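Whether sequence alone determines local backbone shape is best considered at the level of individual chains. We regard such an encoding as a compact summary of how the chain folds. The sequence in question and its structure tokens are set out directly beneath this paragraph.
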Amino acid sequence: MEVPVGYTGPVPDGMVMLDIPATEYVVFRHPPYDFDSQDAAVWKAIRKAVAAYDPHTAGYEWNPSIPMWQRHDAAGMGQAWCRAVRKR
């Protein structure tokens, strides 16, 4: 969930606030799915895709200074895992 820069309001339990730097990302996306019956399989599939992808093939490398983050709305947008890259 995006909030304005400088937001100081409440943060729901179990959530954290972090700044997402503007950079280039590889996005591993899964379309909408049924959370109750498919969530574990979707996570497994995305983890497998992240582990298998080599950004060198596109002239990039992973940027470990920026943590991987994800967006999750099973019924709406599905899942998107975003991992930062930089030009080699």
About this structure: Helices lie at 35-52.
